[in-house]
Write a structure and sequence with these properties.
Helix content is 73%, strand content 0%. It has 179 residues and is an all-alpha fold. It has one domain. α6 (91-118) packs antiparallel against α7. It is globular.
Length: 179
C-alpha cells in the first residue's frame, strides 16, 4: 500500500512530463525535414526518444528522481494501452501489443544509452537508423539519422540544465528541433 501511495505522489507530474515529451515529438521537422516515418511506429519511436531522455535525466538523480522517472514511464504505457483500445485493438491483443512496445522501448533505451554514455554520436546515429527507420545494421543510414542523433544529444544537454524541483513539479523545457 505504501508503494502505491509513493507512486501516486508522482503520477500527476509523470503525466505532465510525458505530455511534454509527446508534444516535443510532434514537431513537423521530424517528419518533413529529416524524413522520420510519419506512421504509428515512427511516431511511437519519436515519443519514445523524448520519454527516454526525460527518464534518463531523472534516473541519474537521487530520490525522488527515479520514482518520477517510473511515473513518466507508467504514463507512457498507460497512454499506449488507451490508444490501442481506441484504435479498436481487442482486449485480448492489447496486453501483447503493449508488452511488445515495452520491450521495444527498453531495447531502444539501452542502445541510445550505451551510445550516449560512450560519447559516441555515430553509434547513436546508427541506433536511430535501426530503430526509427527500421533498417538493418549493415544498411546505409538515411540522411536524417545524424541530425536526429544531434537533436537527441542537444535535448539531453538541455534537460541536464533543468532543476530537479522543476521537473518534480512537471515542468520541463525541450529545446526543440532546429529551425
Amino acid at each position: 500500500m505504501l508503494g502505491l501511495l509513493r507512486r501516486n505522489r508522482h503520477e500527476r507530474a509523470g503525466y505532465t512530463l510525458y505530455g511534454a515529451a509527446v508534444g516535443a515529438a510532434r514537431a513537423p521537422w521530424f517528419y518533413t525535414v529529416i524524413g522520420a516515418p510519419d506512421t504509428l511506429d515512427g511516431r511511437f519511436d519519436l515519443v519514445g526518444i523524448h520519454v527516454y531522455l526525460v527518464v534518463r535525466r531523472l534516473t541519474r538523480e537521487p530520490p525522488p528522481g527515479p520514482a518520477l522517472a517510473q511515473a513518466v514511464f507508467d504514463a507512457m504505457f498507460s497512454d499506449m494501452d488507451l490508444n490501442l483500445r481506441e484504435m479498436g485493438v481487442s482486449d485480448l491483443a492489447v496486453g501483447k501489443r503493449v508488452r511488445a512496445m515495452w520491450e521495444a522501448f527498453h531495447g531502444r533505451a539501452a542502445a541510445y544509452g550505451a551510445a550516449m554514455d560512450a560519447g559516441d554520436r555515430p553509434a547513436l546515429a546508427a541506433a536511430v537508423a535501426r530503430n526509427v527507420w527500421r533498417l538493418p545494421a549493415d544498411a546505409q543510414a538515411p540522411s536524417g539519422a545524424a541530425p536526429l542523433a544531434d537533436h537527441i544529444w542537444d535535448e539531453s544537454e538541455m534537460l541536464a540544465t533543468q532543476d530537479l524541483s522543476a521537473l518534480m513539479a512537471g515542468e520541463v523545457r525541450f529545446r526543440g528541433p532546429p529551425a
